[in-house]
Amino acid sequence: MEIRELAQITGVADTTIRYYEDIQILPPPARKENGYREYRESDVERLRLVAGLRRLDFSLDDIKEILDLRDRQIAPCDVLLDLLGKKAKDIQHRITELQRLNTQLEDLHTVGEDFPRDDIQGKHCVCHLVSESQ
Q1: What is the pLDDT of residues 73-107, one digit of tens each?
Q2: Do 9 and 44 contact (CB within 8 A), yes or no?
Q3: Per-residue pLDDT for 116 more than 90?
Q4: How far apart are CA 57 and CA 95, in angstroms?
Q5: Does residue 46 belong to any structural domain of this protein?
Q6: Which H or E run contains 118?
Q7: Is 84 within a domain?
Q8: Contact indicator for 43, 29 with CB cutoff of 8 Å
Q9: What is the number of structural domains in the chain?
Q10: Contact between 40 and 60 (Cβ < 8 Å)
């Protein structure tokens, strides 16, 4: 199959597929006589895994690690489970931090509404509050 068909089947843009080839996430495909790329079913499966990992916000380095294990005929399941757990903890931490930031923004907004809005120097208005917030 050609790149446009691979892109259609996997939902991954052809430019992204070429990029994945450049950074060696996808192996270089065979070439037809006319120079067009020719992909196999194994490329579809590999690209679907890559796309799924990207949707889960895995880094390209993490993806390379998982694929490298598979390429060496080592099951990446333990590594992937470990990465999933770490990613879930990281996201929970980010959620906590974003909730804290949201509370801080809402508090500054509420307090700032009572401050003057014409202080160009920013010494007696909401700008001062933002400058002092930690």
Answers
A1: 999 999 999 999 999 999 999 999 999 999 999 99
A2: yes
A3: no
A4: 15
A5: yes
A6: none
A7: no
A8: yes
A9: 2
A10: no
CA 9/CA 51 separation, integer angstroms: 12
User: Does residue 61 belong to any structural domain of this protein?
Assistant: yes
Contact status, residue 133 vs residue 112, Cβ threshold 8 Å: no
Domain of residue 41 covers 1-74
- Please, what is the Cα angle at 27 between 49 and 11, to 5 degrees? 40
Tell the residue number behind the tokens 């120097």, with chain if given: 121
Question: What mean pLDDT do residues 25-29 have?
Answer: 94
Give the DSSP letter of residue 29.
P
End-to-end CA distance of the chain: 56
Q: Are residues 2 and 55 in the same domain?
A: yes
The pair of structure tokens assigned to 119 is 């202080």
Domain match, 63 and 95 both: no
Q: Which residue has the tokens 């380095």?
A: 61
